[in-house]
Amino acid sequence: MPLQRIVRVCLEHPTSVVCVAGVETLVDIYGSVPEGTETFEVYGTPGVDIYISPDMERGRERADTRRWHFDASLEIIVVMNSPSNDLNDSHVQISYHSSREPLPLAYAVLYLTCIDISLDCDLNCEGRQDGNFVDKRQWVWGPRGYGAILLVNCDRDDLSCGVQDNDDQHVRCLQDLEDMSVMVLRMQGPAALFDDHKLVLHTSSYDAERARVFHVCGPEDTCEAYRHVLGHDKVSYEVPRFHGDEERFFVEGLSFPDAGFTGLISFHVTLLDDSNEAFSASPIFTDTVVFRVAPWIMTPSTLLPLEVYVCRVRNNTCFVDAVAELARKAGCKLTICPQDENRNDRWIQDEMELGYIQAPHKTLPVVFDSPRNGELQDFPYKRILGPDFGYVTREPRDRSVSGLDSFGNLEVSPPVVANGKEYPLGRILIGGNLPGSSGRRVTQVVRDFLHAQKVQPPVELFVDWLAVGHVDEFLSFVPAPNGKGFRMLLTSPGACFKLFQEKRKCGHGRALLFQGVLDNEQVKTVSINQVLSNEGLISYNKFVQSCIDWNREVLKRELGLAECDIIDVPQLFKTERKKAVAFFPDLVNMLVLGKYLGIPKPFGPIIDGRCCLEEKVRSLLEPLGLHCTFIDDFTPYHMLHGEVHCGTNVRRKPFSFKWWNMVP
């Protein structure tokens, strides 16, 4: 238990002191001692506990058990546990004695006024047996951890307001309060104490930039009652005299964890003695609470889908219809971005990533808007941001971005265990270059943001060999009924050549790829024999396979995967400007809606009336209980170096696991 402060007693006149319930006061009796003092006695009125601490080894003893030898090393500690009814209604008396005198040499009296002050919030102690004994000044991760949580109030509950709620210093509607955390200041004790004392709520200027506090100053059912008292340029607030036992405050986060900001924010209440007009107010006691700003969390493709997004452009009507049918089967809401809003930018996966933030009292979906800023750049802010749907973005100051800053290059694994460490919310996967090389990487501000969230530590993969450069071009995750609960799909030129060699061996070497591609005169059919005799294509795909294999080893190590957790999906690539693009529609670039998969139709060789690539994929995935639907994306997407996943986006159900229960 921390000491409140040191109080010195005086023989000439009684000393009055304010103490806080449950907080120790160290009494100094050595500054004014009668000459000849050998021993002393200490007594207190009922409700005052007094202890003597002779030395570190012996601990402390109750002071009223005997007369004590006068020794400057002794410490006298006073504690009161209940607030006073009136000023100075308790006291401590110290009597000084000498063996040569029958009566005390002198008396000293310390008058006490006890108040109970606490700054409280939901410390999220559910399940802890010792929930009343946690240190509010600390924030502890894990299932036995504790600590208050703030949401970044990044939605817009009042649609008539032109900015997000975290950019607004007013409470525009009562629904806004649901996104905030409650902080309560409690005080019990004589009201007269505040004739010459005051309570000040305060924070640092650093934290004031990252959180805002509203004081309830009237009926809670009116927006006008919520006064902005801390945040931005406001770092302290003198609390008006109480009209009851408590004052309520609402706290909102303004900024997500990021480079230079761990997410921890502290608020303090300090009791100040303002009784001496000749001096500035002096602090008596400070209580502190610490909040952690909730991280932004991504959702893997294995979680339950809730809503599918797709853009309608001039040549993708059949594609949109196919996605709509898949969403219907999966029981998902479908949102179509019309052409007048997307201006023919169809890459909705690249524009945004849909995640969420969570506190014990509220879960809020939040869209992370990528810095790519294509023709879809206004869609997340203008159409998704709204009541109970938040928004966040990160853009470099110099606005220099590459194709790797599109969010097809931002994925997350399902929960994994790797190298003895649990990742119950999975790990973020971003594409970059080989370690130490100077190729393309995700812009620093996005990488800083992702790393600062802590709960899904990113893994950087090698994608600079790809023309577009996105991780979704060579991997995806699908749910599975056994093992880890998922399988990772990796593109595999080796598996494709093996399949084609088997088909040629069975006499199907003349079977053609790209038969049936509609309305595209640029595409010429090619036979299995032609593919297998194309030395340039074979050589280039060996290089591609080596790049995928490098990533495979990284993924096995960083996600704790075994070979049985990986499915190799047949796929070939070709080179354009010394970078790889899919030779036929990229099969792993799929839309995963529970057990329903929307897979790019590969237009592979037709054997016995069936596409052998489709049949191979079915044989790999349908034993897992998955339903494969092959969607023709050839002209509107594949020819533009994208596929089904690139052209769709999904809002998913949050994890059942609570992020604060993990240990980063």
Automatic annotation (TrEMBL):
Under Gene3D superfamilies, the record lists: L-arginine/glycine Amidinotransferase, Chain A (3.75.10.10), Protein-arginine deiminase, central domain (2.60.40.1700), Protein-arginine deiminase, N-terminal domain (2.60.40.1860)
**First-listed, main subcellular location of the protein, grouped into a coarse class:** cytoplasm
| Domain Protein-arginine deiminase (PAD) N-terminal as annotated: residue spans | 1-113
Does this UniProt record's set of keywords contain Acetylation? no
Please report the stretch or stretches of sequence annotated as the Protein-arginine deiminase C-terminal domain.
284-661
The answer to whether keyword Nucleotidyltransferase applies is: no
Localization annotation = Cytoplasm
Molecular functions (GO terms):
calcium ion binding; protein-arginine deiminase activity
Q: Which residues form the active site?
A: D350, H470, D472, C646
InterPro entries assigned to the protein according to its UniProt record, in alphabetical order = Cupredoxin, PAD, PAD_C, PAD_central_sf, PAD_N, PAD_N_sf, Prot_Arg_deaminase_cen_dom
List the EC numbers from the record.
Answer: 3.5.3.15
Q: Which UniProt keywords apply?
A: Calcium, Cytoplasm, Hydrolase
Please indicate which superkingdom the organism of origin belongs to. Eukaryota
Task: Give the family per the record.
Answer: Belongs to the protein arginine deiminase family.
Q: What does this protein do?
A: Catalyzes the deimination of arginine residues of proteins.
Protein name per Swiss-Prot or TrEMBL: Protein-arginine deiminase
The organism of origin for this protein: Sapajus apella (Brown-capped capuchin)
